Amino acid sequence: MTKQNQSLPTSFLIVTGRFIWQKLWLLMMSNLAPTNDKGSYNRPSSQFCHQISQEKDSIYTAEAGRYSLYVGISCPWAHRTLMVRTLKGLENVIEVNFVIPAVNQGGWIMENTSENCQTLRQLYQLSKPNYKGRCTVPVLWDKKTKTIVNNESSEIIILLNNEFNQFAKNAHLNLYSDDLKIEIDPWNEKIYHHINNGVYRCGFAQTQSAYEEACKGLFKILDEIEANLTNNRYLCGNNLTLADIRLFTTLIRFDIVYYSLFKCSVKMIKDYPNLSRYLDDINNLSYIKNTYDLNMIKKDYYGNLFPLNPSGIIPL
Ligand SMILES: N[C@@H](CCC(=O)N[C@@H](CS)C(=O)NCC(=O)O)C(=O)O
């Protein structure tokens, strides 16, 4: 026999449930993902933007063993930094510390206590005592001065590519060469807005029109990239660049997470022959498969983004 609620009329349950849920949903969403007045997601900007340099007298000098990365394994922005660390062969130069989502606190906690901190917020506050902003990963941390050097992935990957060559196993690999910048930068801009952040603008939209605008923009650029890859191995021809790294970390999460959880549901990446080939190509580069974990990605997104998946059920 199926369980039925005998005492309350269905219409009452629907109207009351919908009213309360919508109010709570909007409250949770505006906390999780601030929006503009049209209901479009506005990603807050990063707060720590220092540079590392090879100059001996700079505050943050490039040194082996001095810096560490704090990353969450599900996070696509942190994933960029792990990929560049691996591709450049910096595993023995830059240490990695993992953080995990704290389901009920809505923030990151340390997998293992680090710098005497149990939470990422404590680490941010060690660097800047009155810090009240968002505590995001990735973080590039200086163990010597106990400060955050940088918490913006797009800048950290340039630092890792440029400044540690004297210690890198693959110093010859330049993912952001001067002669390709003119192609890389426009790709980065487009891919950030419409794809990397675009999937979040679909998933975190609070109105139908904000969602549709983000979703149409996303698939327009995916179609453009699909066409570009007909004659090119990577975005800028035969050379792998930072633009590819930035695209890869979104594409690898697309079919298992963004397609359904974020409603990026016009097509899957597997429906695009060139994008699928491209994804495989990058995935098969040395040790790239060690930089992410699809099961953890699925568990973290479906399990922790409560307003998008209140039942917490993780799809098979
Ligand atoms: N602009 C940042 C964004 C990083 C970001 O949003 N990270 C997410 C994880 S995927 C985070 O840590 N969010 C926690 C929060 O917003 O409180 C970057 O690219 O480094």
Tell me, what's the shape? globular
Strands ordered across the widest β-sheet: 4-3-2-1-5-6
What do we call the CATH topology of one domain? Glutathione S-transferase Yfyf (Class Pi), Chain A, domain 2
What is the CATH domain class of one domain? Answer: Mainly Alpha
Can you characterise this structure?
This protein is an alpha+beta fold and 316 residues long. Among the domains are: 67-162, 3-Layer(aba) Sandwich (Glutaredoxin); 178-301, Up-down Bundle (Glutathione S-transferase Yfyf (Class Pi), Chain A, domain 2). 44% of the residues lie in helices and 10% in strands. The protein is built from nine helices and six strands; from the N terminus they run αβαβββαββαααααα. It has helices at 10-32, 76-88, 120-127, 153-162, 181-203, 208-228, 242-261, 273-283, 294-304; strands at 67-72, 95-102, 107-114, 117-119, 139-142, 147-150. A six-stranded mixed β-sheet has the order 4-3-2-1-5-6, sandwiched between helices. The longest helix has 23 residues, at 10-32. The radius of gyration is 21 Å and the shape is globular. The two termini are 27 Å apart. The model has no long low-confidence stretch (mean pLDDT 95). Residues 46, 72, 75, 77, 134-138, 152-154 line the site of glutathione (GSH).
The gist of it:
With 316 residues, the chain is α+β, with helices and mostly antiparallel strands. It is built from 9 helices and 6 strands; from the N terminus they run αβαβββαββαααααα.
